[in-house]
User: Fold this.
Amino acid sequence: MKTYYMACLDLTGRRVVVVGSGGMADEKVAGLEACGAVVDRVARYRRRALRGAFLVVAATSDRALNERIYRDAERRAMFCNVADVPELCNFILPAVHREGPIAVAVSTGGASPALAKRLRDKIAALVRPEHADLAEELRAMRPEVKAKFKTYEERRDYFDEIVRERLS
Assistant:
């Protein structure tokens, strides 16, 4: 079993290729565009479609085509996700819930997207609009707090105390 390094990518203005024409591709395109990616959707794949792209998502039901896309992406050291085929991915997509600036992501390491979605929904019920408001308030405080406290540890402890007080 692989252990994935969890990260949040800034896709604003980055070119992303989605290969596929069905509902799964529609879902991937919508999610990527919501994050500011410049999405090129390709129904008929050619290797040159990957030129200049930051990442590629293959959302097809054609195993041979998915394998080809993965190999082409690997040769270019690109991020590649083949929907519902974790062994052909060098990154996987968690189930995500957003509330303002808060994003809750749940991954099962590709083992079960259904379980990840179920857990995400249960956790999402705990995240309310007031948490998003608090996150925005804390974001606004960051420059002032950074000027006031010189070390990471001091800033961390300061913010931890505010969160503890506000959410108790």
